[in-house]
Every structure is written in C-alpha cells, then in structure tokens.
C-alpha cells in the first residue's frame, strides 16, 4: 500500500531525500496552497510535512481523515494544533537536534565578535574612521566560560571553547560531578558558575524557573567586567537589569541573538556600544535548514517501516481498552514524578517504578512515561511529553526500570516511584481512592495521606513536643496559612516528617525562620 505525503512548505531536495528513496512512499510537493486549497487537498494524504508557514489547525486536521503523522521541519510546533492532532490519533514529530551545530557556531561567533569588538570596529571603519585604540579586545585563552544549561547546544559550545583553550564551568539540572569530569568541564551551581566566569553563555529552555534567571541579583554575583551571551531564548536575561549592569560598568559586553519581544520593539539596549546583536539567526544556516528537513523525513520513513518515531511531541493513540483502565492514573503518575523531582532537588541516576495490584496485569509503559514527563519537565519544559520522556531520560543517563507485583499492599492499585541520586534514595507511593481521587499515601518510609496538588511543604524534623506549634506560628508570621497537615514518625522522639498543604507559594525567604529551628532538619517547598 502506498503512503502518501504532502509537503506544503518549501523543503530542499536534500531534505526530502530519505522520502524519495524509500519504498512505498509517494511525495506531493505543493507549497503555494491557500488555506482553502490545502483544506480541499489534505484528505487522502497519510502525512503532512510543514515548516512554519502552514497553519495546521483543528479545522484542517478534521478534514484529514487519513492523516497519521505531521512533520515539522524545525523545533517549534506553535503552528500545529497538538491537542487536535492527539485527539485524532495523529503523531506530530519535529527536529530538535537539527540546529544544534548552527546554534553552537553562532554562539561562538558572537562570543569572539564581542570579545574582540569586531562589529563596533567595522561600524567605525564604515564611518571613515581609523580608530584602533577604542577597540582593544580581550583574548579567550585561559579565560573561564560559564555555561548555564549543558544540553546538546551547551556541550557543543563547550567543545568549541576548549579549542580556544578556555576553561569551562557548567551548570545543568541533569549534570553531575561524575558526568562533568567525563566531559572535561568543572561543575557547579548557577551561583558557582556566575561567580567565577569571565564569560557567561546561557542555553536553557525558557521556563517559569528560567525566566529572568540572569537578573540584577545574578549580575551582582558576577565578576566586574563579565561578558554575556544569549543565543538561546529571549527572557532568560532580564533586559532591564542587563541595561543597568552595562551602564554601571559591571558588564563589559553582551552579545544577544534573542530578545524578550520579537521582532524587537525596544532598541534601547542597542544604543549601548558594549552590546552587539543579531535578529535571531542561531539556526539560520543552509545546513541547519536541510538538517531539520532530513530529520523529519527520516522519522516519517521510520513510521512507515516500523511504526515508531524518534522525535514525537505528542501522545500517539493507545488501544481504547488499555486507555480506559490506565488513563485515570496518568495524572497521579505525573504528579508523583514532579513531587520527587522537587523533593530530591538532585539529578536522578536511577528510577524504579513499582506497580502493585491490578495494574500489574496491564501494559503500564504509558504510566511510566507519564511519570518521567512529570519528573523531567520541571527542568526541560513542555517539550517533554509521554512519548519522548523515556528517550530523553536515556539521553540524560537516567536508568529506568519497571517492576510488577500482584500483591495489593492494602490498595487495589499502588504506584511506587523510587529515585536514586548521589545523596541517596527517595520514594513516594500513590493511589486513587474512591471519591477522593489521587492521593500520595507514603513518602520514604512514612505513612501519609495527602492530595498531590497545589502548594506543599515537606519538613523533616526531630519528634519533640512543641515543634508543630512553632512551625505553625512561624508560617503564620509570614502570612502563610496551613490548609492541611500530615505528620509521620519513625518512633517516639526520633525522626519525623510533616507534610503541609499551604494556601500560597512559599518563597525561600519565607522559610528562613523554619530552617533556623533546632529541631528542623530540612524544609522543601513543592508546587504541583
């Protein structure tokens, strides 16, 4: 049977080469279709390949009765209605790796151009000036490059910087000291990186946690005369804080390829001679454009041949009889993963998932992937999903194991997740209770019963009289109201825990008083 592929945005012949040379695939390339024309043509095609021009709307998807896979030749999928695709059992794939090399090269180009003031000197020459004294730069050799975000692109930048004989110190939520040693870089917290770096480059996704990660406080930590590069996402650097830091002399230079608003509307930063900029060109090379097209083409070929894809960004269809039984546990599994990520505060090295009761007789792979999604998305963002979560975990060196037991352990079904980090092992168990929904019923070896939702505080303490009252008083002083409290202990006067549900997010400064109590061992704020 022939598999029909419609390509509605321009892709190079090199990019569609895998499709051209695969058996049983017919390609139709029509790149000038109007919205109406595309809607009329789409029915009958098994695959649709697009770039950013074609808007794959719900209306279009509903007209595509045979569509099985949508390929986006690029990273972002904002022009595709993922919810509609998922509802109709259509897999959406993208090309997250295709622009890695181009982005890394652009970062290095910006780094070197900034260090040697090349754009400024060129502009001076164009004005008819021969001014050498104003554009004295600095060498990269023996300088320290701080890399915040050490994924694919961050590692590629580090490899190139080593070629300039720079020292590298990196931070990433999934980077450990052992991994850093193997990669030949130093490892530290964000603050560690900012304190020692002569140059700082950021390569994180833009998340709630990374929004304005480089802010006024971060600049205060840095060396005087530091230089900054952002070729990742606009918004990671607070542009107002950057402006002030450059004006004060704290920052000697900045190189920006991305901005908080694009197209750029506030050009105030570019009035500063210390700042150089480009209009989001990190992936704008012929090779990158070809590479992303090749990646999605290969995924379509893999789907046709084997029914599998590498870079799915949504959940493929699941047999209805399985979905009906496991779907109620999806949210619980995800929340357990997120809960343990916040609780450990460290990179997972191994994850064991135990299924007890009736779940042991079912295909629980989707639940494991959903749990991993909750675990990984805290640091990697929404691009982590049920389908690619296992692949990403493997990439990060996280070993994932499933275990099954028909023993009920007191519950009809029980999901227990055990996370091993360098510091030790933490675990949590959850179930669904009739009429009460998802509950976490055990943390480590302590019996609890709480809803995995909202704002939580996990407190480890010594079991002494008056501790609970002092905790309540100190939280009240910070205008934090306790909604529920669970207390568990190993033995009288021994180790104990409190699991509090509170009415609002607790900032670190709100918890300083608690941490100073003699009986308190640790306080962890968790937002689910």
From TrEMBL:
MF GO annotations: NAD binding; phosphoglycerate dehydrogenase activity
Classification via CDD domains: ACT_3PGDH-xct, PGDH_4
Entry EC number(s): 1.1.1.95
Keywords: Amino-acid biosynthesis, NAD, Oxidoreductase, Serine biosynthesis
Domain of life: Bacteria
GO biological process, one term: L-serine biosynthetic process
Pathway per the UniProt entry: Amino-acid biosynthesis; L-serine biosynthesis; L-serine from 3-phospho-D-glycerate: step 1/3
InterPro entries named in the record: ACT-like_dom_sf, ACT_dom, ASB_dom_sf, D-isomer_2_OHA_DH_cat_dom, D-isomer_DH_CS, D-isomer_DH_CS1, D-isomer_DH_NAD-bd, NAD(P)-bd_dom_sf
Domain ACT: 456-528
Similarity comment text for this entry: Belongs to the D-isomer specific 2-hydroxyacid dehydrogenase family.
Record function comment: Catalyzes the reversible oxidation of 3-phospho-D-glycerate to 3-phosphonooxypyruvate, the first step of the phosphorylated L-serine biosynthesis pathway. Also catalyzes the reversible oxidation of 2-hydroxyglutarate to 2-oxoglutarate.
Protein name: D-3-phosphoglycerate dehydrogenase
